[in-house]
Design a protein that fits this description.
Blueprint: E1 4-6, E2 10-12, E3 15-18, E4 28-34, E5 38-48, E6 51-56, E7 68-76, E8 78-81, E9 89-90, E10 107-110, E11 127-128, H1 133-138, E12 141-142, E13 149-151, H2 157-167, E14 180-189, H3 191-203, E15 210-216, H4 221-240, E16 245-251, H5 253-266, H6 280-288, E17 300-308, H7 317-325, E18 328-332, H8 334-338, E19 345-352, H9 368-392, H10 399-416, H11 426-437, H12 450-456, E20 460-462, E21 468-470
Parallel strand pairs: 9-15, 13-17, 13-18, 14-15, 14-16, 16-17
Antiparallel strand pairs: 1-7, 2-3, 3-6, 4-5, 4-7, 5-6, 8-10, 11-12, 18-19, 20-21
């Protein structure tokens, strides 16, 4: 028999306090009725003797101490999951907002999930092709990996997220037995950004393998804390029970963390770095660690969390803690963006720690690792040549340094830079890399195995239009 409690003890922002509670449990969902008609959901986040602190998902507007009835459900936050969710759009707690009606659930799951037993985890192998050369060639995304994108305000991370949804696939294999899909979750986005995502997915024809969760900026802040957990619950069901390979894109994790800070402040907790609660690390870890591959299961969950660094500060607590938990990072650069290079990926501070185990012979191409190593090495020397040119002038540079300047400009324009609709195969990406390396003298390419170098290296030059063409004998 369920007990209904009349009235509240206090209301503070998105939180309410209920006294005289018996048999309540942490994370339990409560149903609240305002003025005898409006239904809202809440979650118990703290219990102290007979007092329960409740987060109200829909916010506490129009709630008063005497006009609210509260009923304990005895269950944690759950969501009904189904393959019929593909092509649909939901709010932050999994309710349909696309006007297409209710989704018949195949199963109901706790959104908090269950920690993956480390013993049952398989080491990530194989890669996911994004069609973006800088990612596929130099910081390859591996199935089961968590690879965040560090961005900044005003940088095109929304366009990049939409492109990843449109273009991502299971490499260039023809294995139709493996099913791939995307779960996309946006937190704290403005209406125009939400419209951009929905319109892009619909117009590009990828909606049939995308499930979208959108929490708007004017939605209750507490809903933002649930959104990534709801998205990952759906992803885990499709991956581990339906055998699909799921890419989860979460944007923007900074909004999630700031929602945590707001709720923590409302609870009166002692703040840690930058005002964030001391458990920010563990909360981020509970989300990021839900990526992976389970032994004996065909599916996988791969994560690309996107976060905006306040003031472009990579040492800010959110990117700093994210870097500890995840396996690499992709960093967007404001200077490249100012040169109209898209996507403005800063190559040198970016990396994928699992890349080496999912590329090469049998995965991409035998020369992949060597090409990536040489491109990193050559581009790192471009900065030295540019610094020297700024001091003594470009005309005074050695011939080799001048070649590095040419290589650097071409690398940024042709390898990093590509159009928002340019979906490159891994072979096209590697061939572009070889064309760029052909601009350098063969003796400078010291990171490539001699056999691979002899097989693929061909001297190149830039023509009058700035295109790469084979070098003539005289050159």
């Amino acid at each position: 028999m369920s007990i209904e409690y009349l009235g509240l003890s206090s209301i503070n922002g998105p939180l309410v306090v209920l006294e005289g509670v018996k048999g309540a449990a942490y994370d339990e969902i409560v149903e609240m009725t305002v003025d005898g008609k409006e239904k809202r959901l809440g979650r118990i986040i703290e219990i102290n003797d007979d007092k329960a602190v409740i987060q109200v998902f829909e916010g506490t507007d129009r709630m008063a101490l005497r006009n609210t009835h509260t009923k304990l459900t005895g269950k944690p936050m759950e969501i009904g999951v189904s393959e019929a969710m593909f092509g649909r759009t939901f709010n932050g707690i999994g309710e349909p907002i696309d006007g297409l009606g209710h989704v018949e659930a195949e199963k109901t799951l706790d959104v908090n999930g269950k920690p993956l037993n480390p013993v049952t985890r398989e080491y990530p192998r194989n890669y996911i092709r994004t069609g973006i050369s800088a990612i596929d060639g130099l910081m390859t995304l591996i199935r089961g990996q968590k690879l965040p994108i560090f961005s900044g305000n005003g940088l095109p991370h929304d366009e990049l997220a939409a492109q990843l949804v449109r273009q991502s696939s299971l490499g260039d294999s023809d294995n139709d037995d493996e099913k791939f899909a995307v779960v996309f979750a946006a937190m704290g986005v403005k209406h125009d950004v939400a419209d951009f995502f929905q319109r892009t997915f619909a117009e590009s024809g990828v909606s049939d393998h995308v499930i979208t969760f959108i929490n708007l900026a004017n939605d209750p802040v507490v809903e933002r804390l649930i959104t990534p957990k709801v998205a990952l619950t759906v992803a885990e069901y499709l991956a581990f029970e339906k055998g699909m390979h799921i890419l989860v894109i979460l944007t923007d994790m900074t909004s999630f963390a700031e929602a945590m800070r707001e709720v923590s402040s409302s609870k009166g907790e002692i703040p840690s770095r930058k005002g964030f609660p001391g458990y920010l690390y563990s909360e981020l870890a509970t989300i990021y660690e839900r990526a992976g591959i389970v032994s004996g299961v065909n599916g996988s969950v791969t994560q690309i969390p996107i976060l905006t660094m306040p003031n472009d500060d990579i040492t800010h607590p959110i990117p700093d803690l994210t870097g500890y938990i995840t396996e690499g990072q992709i960093v967007l650069d404001r200077d490249l963006n100012g040169q109209s290079i898209y996507p403005p990926i800063s190559v040198l501070p970016s990396l994928s720690r699992l890349m080496k185990d999912g590329i090469g012979e049998g995965f991409t191409r035998a020369d992949h690792q060597d090409v990536a190593n040489q491109l990193f090495s050559s581009y790192s020397k471009v900065g030295d040549a540019r610094a020297l040119a700024s001091v003594i002038g470009e005309d005074e540079l050695s011939d080799t340094d001048k070649k590095y300047l040419v290589f650097g400009r071409a690398f940024e324009q042709m390898f990093i830079g590509q159009s928002v609709n340019d979906n490159r195969t891994i072979f096209e990406t590697l061939d572009i890399g070889w064309n760029l390396l052909g601009l350098m003298p063969k003796g400078e390419l010291d990171r490539i195995d001699t056999k691979i170098l002899d097989k693929y290296y061909k001297p190149t030059m830039l023509d009058a239009n700035g295109d790469i063409v084979p070098a003539t004998v005289e050159d």
